[in-house]
Amino acid sequence: MSADVLLHEQRGPVLVVTLNRPAVRNAISGEMMRGIADSVERAEQDDTIRVVILAGAGEKAFCA
């Protein structure tokens, strides 16, 4: 997966996953969907993560 398609930032018990395709209004591709699933699995396996926030990059749309 392209490193730029999803951004991850852990802030204490919060994992922020940002859809990072603002040029196409963060439309979810197959690659991005697999990455989201991997992120959820990561959170399920890590006892320090309590919350996952799914965010969208850019200002036009969260996700198309």
Helix and strand topology:
Elements: E1 6-11, E2 14-19, H1 30-45, E3 51-56
Parallel strand pairs: 2-3
Antiparallel strand pairs: 1-2
Q: Would you identify the regions where 5 or more consecutive residues have pLDDT less than 50? A: none
The main pleated sheet reads as: 3 strands, mixed
Number of strands: 3
What is the helix/strand order?
EEHE
Structural class given helices, strands, pairing?
A: alpha+beta
Spatial separation of the terminal alpha carbons: 20 Å
Report the portion of residues in β strands: 25-35%
- Rg from C-alpha positions? 12 Å
Average pLDDT confidence is 94
Task: Describe what you observe in this structure.
- The protein is of the alpha+beta class and 64 residues long.
- Helix content is 25%, strand content 28%.
- The protein contains 1 helix and 3 strands, in the order E-E-H-E.
- The radius of gyration is 12 Å and the shape is globular.
- The model has no long low-confidence stretch (mean pLDDT 94).
Key attributes of the depicted protein:
3-stranded mixed sheet, globular, alpha+beta, 3 strands, 64 residues
Structure at a glance:
The protein is of the alpha+beta class and 64 residues long. It is built from 1 helix and 3 strands, in the order ββαβ.
